[in-house]
Write a structure and sequence with these properties.
The complex is a heterodimer of chains A (433) and B (305). In chain A, 31% of the residues lie in helices and 23% in strands. Chain A is an alpha/beta fold and 433 residues long. By secondary structure, chain B is of the alpha/beta class. A 5-stranded parallel sheet of chain B has the order 7-6-5-8-9. A 4-stranded parallel sheet of chain B has the order 2-1-3-4, with helices on both faces. Chain B has 2 domains: 137 residues, Aspartate/ornithine carbamoyltransferase (Rossmann fold), CATH 3.40.50; 149 residues, Aspartate/ornithine carbamoyltransferase (Rossmann fold, 3-Layer(aba) Sandwich), CATH 3.40.50.1370. The chains are: A alpha/beta (433), B alpha/beta (305). At the A-B interface, α6 of A face α4 of B.
């Protein structure tokens, strides 16, 4: 069915593209100058952008469907303006066989929500010891390999993983924290943790591991060079100013590396811990306001190339345990865009095309995909949002099974009204006629 | 100053509030000196002691304090409870709440659990120690004991010795004693000192902390620290940080010597010192009862006229 989106302000990662009437037909952008359509959406004052890509979400399937499942996760993503989500493999069982990847992708196609991209484990059971079959996983449709949730303690294993994944054309994502330095830390290490009597996870645990992994990457680059291939190392949820500096220097040198920022590290600091609320417990932890500033600056400068939600749903009961036994993770698929639009674009002056780039083409490039463009012939994976529509965050209305949020009650604008995947509506807000 | 709603720590407290509570404790101690050690002040109230971490003396002290004032008392402890069957601590608290209780005296293994409890419960929450964070009634009984000896704390130097980083006793004393005019020094091995202890000066030099001190507080050394690797050698600790008669001589000759108990004799403190003339260990226990009576009274009935 064809759809005409009239008078929308077009923005993609390349910049502001002016106002246009966008005709969607047969799953693609058919025209930017109007045309006949079965349906018309009046979009004056609203912004049309490519649908967002989340390179980092925990959809908990298989095995942990009590926290989230493919349907709730992909529909929640669609509501958040996402057209595609990369699901992490730290499930039960761990996703590490080609058949598991195919089964997940097949299952997701039946769900009216965002597209699923599947990540598989880098090592067996994410134990950091024996590698998974990168080439077979790539053939089965995996987009990336990672032991996210676990840290890759053995540098030799990571090096061989980068080489095999690189040869198969897959990026490797790492949860960069030194396990020993991190210890049992539940919040950012420092004076506040000392005052609150909670165990600290120091930012040096992240920086030390980022520094090591960049040397490992250098090694993998050298080993793959004769084959004409390049590995790609993706640092998930970068949380501290020092890590940003290391990544900036590596990129300046031309190393194939991409760093990710999350909505929570960009908008919350450790100061919120004075409330002693396990909803704030996340790994790596919320850092200082100076770190938040550094992350926002690096995002704008492009030193951090992607925004990943690290949407990590748990049951409410799990998040109401004490601060030591509650699990790590903050769910954010349904608020990420409005949150970042409000906090970064509206309040801090980040150019909108930069935010869009870091949530579309940035992560897509890291996954080896074409940038997302609003041009004739491009797939109609689109997102329409209203910069003027202000609402409170109401977690009890989330589609996700994790109906709580550290941003509950925050007044945000820029809520997604319409999300299309291959021209099909996967989210329509009640505010759209 | 407003009435207390909970006692979680000394956040927001001022000197008058602390002195007022300690004054009430003095009145309570008079009750303890009578042949008939009971007053009807809390008749009709029910106090629950909810201990998610084992403790004998603090639990008994609170229960006695409540009973001396004619409150009904129920006790819950983790061992043998439904927690052992997998019930969450929130559900445990909500179940107790359904029994129409007025005050919850909570001991918790993790910092912040008492704040979570205060959010969930309608009654009054008294922190009987949460993780490494706070143990306000211990600090109050320590202050009470010190005031007995020293009259006032203005300009007095109090040295706290031991595993500072992991001590809720040190944290609460560092908050309370400066409110009363004291200067607090905290000394221990570098690996057992926190990055910051608001209200105290930190040092790894035991002698510097003890020098001319008006009072000395020795903390219990938890042997678990050895397993965690934060304390490499018990022998080294004893050699450098055990409070001995010889080291104590650096402090004022009559400086009271406090220990929150339970004591590891000849580990953090030379055994004979614990029984010596400077020891206030037994005095602290008695003070604890009076202070806890005052806390429950202030929270449940309000400030005495």
């Amino acid at each position: 069915m064809s759809l005409l989106i009239k008078n929308a302000r077009l923005v993609d990662g390349s910049g502001e593209l002016g106002t246009a009437d966008v005709l969607v037909a047969e799953g693609r952008i058919a025209s930017l100058s109007g045309g006949d359509a079965a349906r018309v959406v009046e979009a004056a004052g609203k912004v049309l952008a490519p649908a967002l890509t989340d390179p980092h979400a925990h959809l908990r399937t298989p095995g942990q469907e009590v926290k989230e499942d493919l349907a709730s996760g992909l529909r929640a993503a669609a509501r958040g303006g996402y057209g595609a989500v990369l699901a992490m493999p730290n499930t039960d069982p761990v996703v590490q066989e080609p058949e598991q990847v195919q089964a997940l992708l097949d299952e997701a196609r039946k769900i009216p929500g965002a597209r699923l991209f599947a990540a598989a484990a880098l090592t067996r059971d994410q134990a950091g010891e024996r590698l998974t079959p990168a080439a077979l996983l790539a053939q089965a449709g995996a987009s990336l390999l990672t032991d996210d949730g676990r840290t890759n303690e053995d540098a030799g294993v990571l090096a061989r993983g980068l080489i095999y994944a690189g040869a198969a054309g897959l990026p490797v994502a790492v949860h960069a924290e030194d396990a020993g330095l991190r210890g049992g830390g539940v919040m950012n290490d420092g004076r506040l943790a000392a005052e609150l009597g909670l165990s600290g996870n120091p930012h040096e645990a992240e920086a030390a591991r980022v520094a090591r992994d960049l040397e490992v990457l250098r090694y993998a680059v050298r080993k793959l060079e004769p084959l004409g291939r390049r590995p790609l190392l993706y640092f998930q949820h970068v949380s501290s100013a020092r890590s940003v500096e290391l990544i900036r220097a590596a990129r300046a040198e031309g190393l194939p590396v991409c760093g990710e920022a999350t909505p929570h590290h960009l908008t919350l600091s450790e100061d919120a811990w004075r409330d002693f609320d396990p909803l704030l417990k996340v790994a790596p932890p919320l850092r200082t306001t100076a770190d938040v500033e550094a992350l926002a600056g690096a995002l704008e400068a492009g030193d951090l190339c992607a925004i990943g939600t690290d949407h990590a749903p748990h049951t409410r009961a799990e998040k109401e345990r004490d601060l030591e036994s509650a699990p790590f993770g903050i769910p954010s698929l349904e608020v990420a865009f409005a949150l970042l639009y409000t906090e970064l674009v509206a309040k801090r002056g980040l150019p909108l095309p930069v935010l869009i780039e870091r949530m579309t083409s940035g992560p897509r490039r890291a996954l080896g995909l074409e940038p997302a463009r609003l041009e004739v012939g491009a797939p109609a994976d689109l997102m329409l949002f209203d910069p003027g529509l202000e609402r409170s965050v109401e977690p009890e209305k989330f589609i996700s099974k994790a109906r709580y949020s550290p941003w509950a009650g925050w007044r945000l604008s820029g809520w997604p009204l319409l999300t299309l995947v291959a021209g099909k509506e996967v989210w329509r807000d009640a505010a759209v006629a | 100053m407003g009435a207390l709603t909970h006692l979680l720590d000394f956040e927001g407290w001022d000197r008058a509030q602390a002195e007022n509570l300690l004054e009430t404790a003095r009145l309570m101690e008079e009750v303890l000196e009578r042949p008939m050690k009971k007053v009807p002040a809390l008749k009709g109230f029910t106090v629950a002691t909810v201990f998610f971490e084992p403790s004998t003396r603090t639990k008994i002290s609170f229960e006695l304090a409540a009973r001396r004032m004619s409150a009904d008392v129920v006790g819950f402890s983790k061992a043998g409870s439904s927690l052992a069957k997998g019930e969450s601590f929130k559900d445990t608290l909500l179940t107790l709440q359904a029994m129409a209780l007025d005050a919850y005296v909570i001991r918790a293994p993790v910092a912040g659990m008492v704040h979570q409890a205060a959010r969930w419960l309608r009654g009054v929450v008294v922190n009987a120690g949460d993780g490494r964070r706070a143990h306000p009634t211990q600090a109050l009984l320590d202050a009470y004991t010190l005031l007995d000896d020293l009259g006032g704390l203005d300009g007095k130097k109090v040295a706290i010795i031991g595993d500072i980083a992991n001590s809720r006793v040190a944290r609460s004393n560092a908050q309370l004693l400066p409110l009363l005019g004291a200067t607090v020094w905290a000394a221990g091995p570098a690996g057992l000192l926190p990055e910051d202890l608001p209200g105290a000066r930190l040092t790894a030099d035991l002698d510097e902390a003890l020098e001319d001190a008006d009072a000395v507080m020795v903390l219990r050394l938890q042997r678990e620290r050895m397993g965690e690797g934060t304390l490499p050698s018990l022998r080294e600790y004893v050699a450098d940080y055990q409070v001995t008669a010889k080291r104590l001589a650096r402090a004022k000759p009559t400086a009271p010597l406090l220990h929150p108990g339970p004591m590891n004799r000849d580990v953090e403190i030379e055994g004979a010192l614990a029984d010596g003339p400077q020891s206030r260990v037994e005095r602290q226990v008695r003070a604890g009862e009076a202070v806890r009576m005052a806390v429950l009274y202030h929270l449940l009935v309000g400030r005495a006229a």
